[in-house]
Amino acid sequence: MPPKSKRVLPGKRYPLNMRTTKELRGKIEEAAMASGRSLVQEVEFRLEQSFRREEDDRRRKEELESFGVKIVEEMQKRLNPKKLLEFIKNYEAQGAGIGAPMRRHHVIALDEPIPETPEPNVPLPEPKKAPVKESVRETDKEDSK
User: Fold this and answer.
1) pLDDT in tens, 44-74
2) Rounded to whole angstroms, how far apart are CA atoms 39 and 32?
3) Taking residues 79-94, what's their average pLDDT?
């Protein structure tokens, strides 16, 4: 009997034996029925999706880091170093940082009235008056002939 080939064939399926809980199997069966795939095809599809998501997340993270570097470089070009350091210190002093919220929330008690914000006393500019042109209908043109 000849030895088995060790080469990997594209598209060839290889066995993967696994055990799972009854609940998870039920969810996979429901998803497979809804998508029209077999149980094994559904598991394979979902595994491939998870690897694609990981790759997309990694690529997005790299893009965001690159974008952040570009922002800092542009700020360094436009601001002098003292102003940039002052901006960073103020930013961090507010409790902000990567992954941290910019502002802290203030809880207002139910029995405490919320103060009204007064309307600004800024005069609005007068609207420009455009001359009104009367439209001429086709029937009016014929009557004037």
Assistant:
1) 999 999 999 999 999 998 888 888 888 877 7
2) 6
3) 72
Which amino acid would we find at residue 68? Answer: G
Spatial CA neighbour of 87 closest among 101, 72, 100, 99:
72
| Rounded CA separation 59/63 (Å) | 6
Nearest residue to 75 (alpha-carbon basis) of 87, 91, 65 = 87
Q: Name the H helices within the chain.
A: 22-35, 39-78, 81-93, 138-143
Rg (CA), the chain: 34
- Give φ, ψ of 97 to 5 degrees: 175, -175
Pair 79, 87: CB distance under 8 Å: yes
Q: Distance between CA 43 and CA 47 in Å, rounded?
A: 6
Angle at 111 between CA 107 and CA 116, to 5 degrees: 75
